[in-house]
Design brief:
The chain contains 6 helices and 5 strands; from the N terminus they run βαβαβαβαβαα. It is α/β, with parallel strands linked by helices. Helix 1 (15-25) packs across helix 2 (47-65).
Length: 165
């Protein structure tokens, strides 16, 4: 069984993330969505809320793609998370050149830690390339419409979290 790991903070999960999940699912038999517990980033949504949103979105994607998609919180090194879930592939989404520079460094470090875990980059669809969770939160905070960037369910949860529902 080919297992992939798509890691991120997903604060919140966006249509860009969903695009990468859908396309990543086509490459593997099981796709694990690694939900990073990154205390340094100070996420808006707590871990349980992020996992709930991912599980809700991914239940539909699992049905569509025929691939098992599960959420898995982690707080250790990405390569250790890959070992924990049995992943041979790390799936990463790229939006722009700036993403590539950071990801290139990460691949190099991960290859030193374990040469058997391969990283696969998927370019975001053009319509999703500008979407970043940080910007989505800022737009919502400033009363902008985020419906082009997240699912209706995530939009509702985001507005409720910001006290704007």
């Amino acid at each position: 069984m080919r297992i992939g790991l798509y890691p991120g903070t997903f604060d919140p999960i966006t249509l860009g993330h969903i695009d990468i999940i859908r396309r990543g699912a086509a490459l593997v038999d099981r796709l694990v969505i690694g939900v990073a517990i990154n205390r340094d980033k100070g996420p808006l949504f707590d871990l349980e809320e992020r996992v709930e949103m991912i599980e809700s979105v991914c239940a539909k994607l699992s049905e569509e793609t025929g691939t098992e998609i599960v959420a898995h919180p982690f707080e250790n090194l990405l390569i250790h998370c890959a070992h924990d879930v049995g992943a041979q592939i790390i799936v990463r989404g790229l939006r722009a050149v700036a993403d590539f520079e950071y990801e290139y460094q990460m691949v190099g470090m991960n290859r030193v830690l374990d040469r058997n875990v391969e990283t696969v980059f998927l370019m975001a669809e053009a319509k999703h390339q500008a979407i970043a969770s940080k910007l989505v939160k800022e737009i919502a905070r400033l009363d902008g419409d985020v419906s082009s960037f997240v699912t209706p369910e995530v939009r509702e949860r985001l507005l409720a979290k910001l006290g704007k529902a």
